[in-house]
Every structure is written in C-alpha cells, then in structure tokens.
C-alpha cells in the first residue's frame, strides 16, 4: 500500500492537474504579496515601491492569463477557401427551388407570405446589415441553419478564447423587383437568383459586429470557415466562397 501511494505521488508530479496549477498560482500570489509588503514597509522611495507593485501585478496577470488559456482549442481554419467551398449557382439553385417558396414579386407580396417565411432580422447570434436589396426573411429550414451557424460560431469563439463578435448577414430574401434593380449595375445578378426562394443568405467574412472587443486580423474568418466547413460536411448547406463580394454565399439543403 505504501509503495502504491509513492507511485501515485510520482505520477501526479509527472502529470500535473488543474489543482497543481492553482496551487502554484496561489503560492506565487503569496510570494508577491510578501514582496509587496516588504517594500511598502521599508524606507525605500515611493518610486521603487510603485515599480515593484507594477511588476507584481504584471506577473500575476501573465500567470492568470496562462492558466485561463491553457484549455483553449487551436484555430486551424481551412486549407483553401475556394476548394473547401466550391458550390456554384448551378448546384445551389436546385436546392433553392426544392426547399424554397414561390418567388415574391415585391416587398408588399413578401409581407403577405409570412406563413411561409420566418423573420430573421434580429438574433443574439448574428447581426443583419442594413439591407438595400433584400429583406430579412427566410424559409424555416434556412432560418434554423442560420441560427445554428451563429450559435456554433459563438461556441467556437468561447472555446478558442477569442473575444465575442457577431456574424454579419449581408443579403437574405430578394424580391423579383430587387433582382431587376440589381441587374442594372451587377452583371452577376441573375433572374434565377437563389435569394428569390428564401433559402439563401450571405455572411461576410471581412467584417464582424463586436460584442466584447474587435478582432483585427483574420482569426474570425478562420473560425467562421471551420464552422461552415462542418455544416457543409454534415449535409446542412451548400457554400460558395465569393471573392469579389467578400462573403460566403450559402443555400440550405
């Protein structure tokens, strides 16, 4: 029994647990507190005491940060955006026509189709941009997909220790009048746009809506690409990486 206890103690030393980290943390706190008291009570100048306090606070912050981030998951992204998200208009339109509603003529027509469409203009998981060529409605199946993507994005941010930012939705349901206006200055706008059916939405990858603090590099894009890759692999959606529009264009499956 004594030999077994010794063996377990050695194993604990080799494989430190969260308890050991916390024990070390409080030991350092006690040591720094003692150093602080020593300098405060001594006859040294206030400048020296302030310097020591600043160094102690810095050390505590560094140690606390390392303990808090030790469990965070790595950010990997995808190897190639175009290869990972290749689903073209010809692929997405089939799903849009299958799962979607009959195209709405104009905004007034859309208002009378609310039994078929779900309002998606507000959500804690994503932010809808100011829309000029679409309206914030989707078929229920696509609405659930959008909400699940936003929630999965939040979960990933938390798991990876990244400040919370909302996704930004830039395009949703388009009426036939919207498509006609777009065609005047956008050659990519088509009469058979997937957005006509309420099954399709765009999420931009170069802008985000900060909740806690902004993230300036491509970290959020990498995390978003992981989430969309997973949803696509689950058979939930088709996704196209749009370079010129700066967005992921997706249709529910």
Structural notes for this entry:
- The protein starts with a helix and ends with a strand.
- A hairpin with a 4-residue loop joins strand 7 and strand 8 (247-252).
- The strands form 2 sheets. Strands 2, 4, 5, 6, 7 and 8 form a 6-stranded mixed sheet that branches. A two-stranded antiparallel sheet has the order 1-3.
- It has helices at 2-14, 18-41, 46-69, 81-84, 89-99, 107-111, 140-159, 176-183, 219-233; strands at 118-119, 126-128, 137-138, 165-171, 200-204, 209-210, 237-242, 247-252.
- Helix 2 (18-41) packs antiparallel against helix 3 (46-69) and helix 7 (140-159) crosses helix 9 (219-233).
- Mean pLDDT is 81; it is low at 9-19 and 35-70.
- With 253 residues, the chain is an alpha+beta fold.
- The chain contains 9 helices and 8 strands.
């Amino acid at each position: 029994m004594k030999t077994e206890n010794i063996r377990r103690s050695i194993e604990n030393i080799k494989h430190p647990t969260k308890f050991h980290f916390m024990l070390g943390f409080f030991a350092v706190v006690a040591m720094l507190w003692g150093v602080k008291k020593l300098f405060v009570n001594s006859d040294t100048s206030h400048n020296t005491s302030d310097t020591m306090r600043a160094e102690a606070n810095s050390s505590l912050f560094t140690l606390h940060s390392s303990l808090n981030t030790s469990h965070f998951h790595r950010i990997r992204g995808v190897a190639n955006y175009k290869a990972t998200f290749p689903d073209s208009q010809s692929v997405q339109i089939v799903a849009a026509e299958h799962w979607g509603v009959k195209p709405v003529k104009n905004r007034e027509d859309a208002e009378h189709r609310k039994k078929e469409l779900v309002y998606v203009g507000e959500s804690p998981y994503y932010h809808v941009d100011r829309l000029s060529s679409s309206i914030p409605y989707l078929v229920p199946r696509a609405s659930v997909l959008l909400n699940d993507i936003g929630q999965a994005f939040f979960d990933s941010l938390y798991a990876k220790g990244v400040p919370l930012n909302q996704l930004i939705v830039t395009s949703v349901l388009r009426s036939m009048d919207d498509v006609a206006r777009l065609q005047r200055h956008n050659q990519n706008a088509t009469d058979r746009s997937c957005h006509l059916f309420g099954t399709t939405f765009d999420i931009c990858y170069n802008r985000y809506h900060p909740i806690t603090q902004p993230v300036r590099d491509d970290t959020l894009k990498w995390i978003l690409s992981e989430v969309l890759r997973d949803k696509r692999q689950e058979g939930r959606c088709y996704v196209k990486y749009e370079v010129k529009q700066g967005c992921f264009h997706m249709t529910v499956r």
